[in-house]
Amino acid sequence: MDFRPLNDVERRQLINALRGNAESDRAILIDRRDTSFLGTSDEVPDEEVINAIKSVPCHY
Amino acid sequence: MLQALLSTTRGLLNDFMRSWHRPKPVPPPSREVVPPVATNYVPLRRVLITDEVGRTLFEEYSGHRAAERGDEETGWVLLGRREANEAIVLATLPAGSESDAGVAHIRFNSTGQAIASSIVRQQDRRLTTLGIVHTHPGSLRHPSDGDFRGDRHWVQKLRGKEGVFGIGTADGQPVNGSAFAYQPKAHVQCLGELRFSWYALGHGDGNYRPLPVELTIGPDLARPLHAIWPIVEEHAEQLERLYRQQANVRFEVLSDAGNPGLSLTIPLAASGESVRVLLRRKEVCYYLVRGDQMLRADCTDECVDRGVYLMLAELASQA
Prior knowledge:
By secondary structure, chain A is α+β, with helices and mostly antiparallel strands.
């Protein structure tokens, strides 16, 4: 098992991914073999799209 | 005894040296991480619409005005890609015949639009809700105060907390006939007497701002669905339930001339087996697909999710 500190780039990417997850429900991808961080997905969750559509207000 | 002690000491020393010089485990190389796409959204600089989306808006607005309910407002939800500073519109979801509309208001049939968004997003799950277009009966080419009261809250649900809003009016002065569209201003498109004026509104903004619109070549990914929109609306609630409850549901638009429809496929546990439902106007047919075989099921339930679960129960009892 490797415990090594993240380098600057990795740390920045992880922080961005965590922020995207917290603020925009953006998925954080992990490697299914060792659960290491693989980046983020730019897929938009169904819930986000459907919630927006179902809450379109009345227009005049 | 001394020999034994020396031998033991030598052994310990050898063990220590082997340990000291043993190659250390090589740490795994720094993995190339997929660049995160935590886009830093900034205010929209432009909205880019594809040529087919542009055609959809003008053609369907024209068709709506000529129809029986032509004096009512109409509209579309816009799906597409939200980039850092621009929105790219790639699909239009019509308000629907079951929308609540009058000469001075419109509330879309969101149930139909919701399942339609899921169908469209089978092609590209990066598509998101960008905004809406709706029409005004007179010559108000700007969103109304009533629009603002609702949109200012709604935009918080959108990527970048900003939305694209198009206003359709039919008060243009035709230039060069209706052969091609033109843009008298950066945020306005005109074709014949029809005119779409584009705006952006961000969370916390005090008003809409004109949004330059540009065209690019591309599809309206939802256009095949428009031909079967009444079918989508009729079965929307049941289809949405199935889509949420069953994994890997696939939809396909059947564009048979004269009898278009929607196909729904749910894979079964056995390889190559699936349940398929064909939805056409006033017709729901259920099939069991086994490899190359397609077996018609003796089920005529018009409630799609109930029909599917009856079939699944029957198949489970035969297993």
